[in-house]
Amino acid sequence: MSNREVVVLSVGGVRFVTRASTLQQFPESRLARMLNNDDREFKLVNGEFFVDRDGTLFSYIMDFLRTLQVSLPTDFSDYQRLQREAEFYGLYPLADLLSQEHLLKPRLEILEVRFSVQEMQAFFRIFGSCSTTVETLAEQITVFTGQQSGQSWNSPFPSQKPLVPLPLERPSHHDMVFQCGTDYSAGDQFVARYVSIKPDNRKLINGTNVLGLLLDTLLKDGFRLVSTRTVSSEEKVECYSFERMKRPAGLTITVNQTPGSSGVAQAKRSQVQKGK
Question: Where in this protein does the record put region Disordered (predicted)?
């Protein structure tokens, strides 16, 4: 039976079709031993292996065997039951990961946008609970500056003028600061700052337009606007608060196979997760 390439399993009435090599990822597991008829829990009926276990949870077992990653839905809650299933099948590296629920559960991510207007300039400050999100957003936002005469600063074709990109201010890993609009420099000269937010290619100078594009970008990225308030009526500072459930980075099992050793014994757990 071990030389078959395609294996059909019926788990609690749910049918699964996979490769034998997938079930043999962990040679000491019951699923691998099943192919050699070494486990009486698995009955071979009409060419299909039958096991009286939870078929819905087994779909996550199969996903793990195919990818060697643990990636669960944001609304998943049966960690203990899935851990019990992993132990039943002899997949102890998976059971070990599931015992650490805090690594797998989605986290509530908070982001805050502060916006103020002073004369002809608009100021933005973005705070985020996840530094990775702030870093990604900082890569999307570019501020361009150029010194122009008072008669031409309001040209509708800023791309035709020599504009220089400016780095965003990053007071910490969790926030960024930038501004747009115009300011006097000397004589009839203005310093103009335009903002571009990828994937939108426009260079915007009006603060209200930049705010609208920024909020729309966050909403498209899965954030939900939860509140809008005025922080300082004197300074006209508006605050927009967002939140979203952030899926954790996938946890990966690395299996090092060496002569005379088993995949379970050599299993190593690695986690790639930023913004903690």
Answer: 256-276
| 169 φ, ψ (degrees, to nearest 5) | -75, 130
> What is the side-by-side strand order in the sheet with 14-19?
14-19, 6-11, 48-51, 43-45
Mean pLDDT by 10 residues, the chain (276 residues): 77 94 92 84 88 94 91 84 95 89 81 92 94 93 80 49 86 95 70 93 93 96 93 82 79 52 38 37
Rounded CA gap, 204 and 202, in Å?
A: 6
C-alpha to C-alpha distance for 83 and 67, rounded to whole angstroms: 17
Question: What does the block give as tokens for 182?
Answer: 């115009």
Give the Cβ contact number of residue 10 at 10 Å: 17
Residue 120 and residue 181 in contact, taking contact as beta carbons nearer than 8 Å: yes
- Strand locations in 119-156 (E): 121-128, 141-149
Quickly count: other Cβ atoms within 10 Å of residue 120's Cβ: 16
Residue 38 DSSP class: -
Helix, strand, coil share of the chain (percent; to 5): 25, 40, 35
CA dihedral 95, 96, 99, 103 (to 10 degrees): -120
Q: Quote the crossing angle between the two packed helices 79-88 and 55-67, to the nearest 10°.
A: 70
Give the helix/strand (H/E) hosting 86.
Answer: helix 79-88
Residues 55, 14 contacting (CB under 8 angstroms): yes
Q: Left (φ > 0), alpha (ψ -120 to 50) or beta: where does 27 sit? A: alpha
Give the model's pLDDT for residue 198: 94
pLDDT of residue 23: 93
Torsion of CA 216, 171, 271, 87, to 10 degrees: -70
Contact yes or no for 254/73 (Cβ under 8 A): no
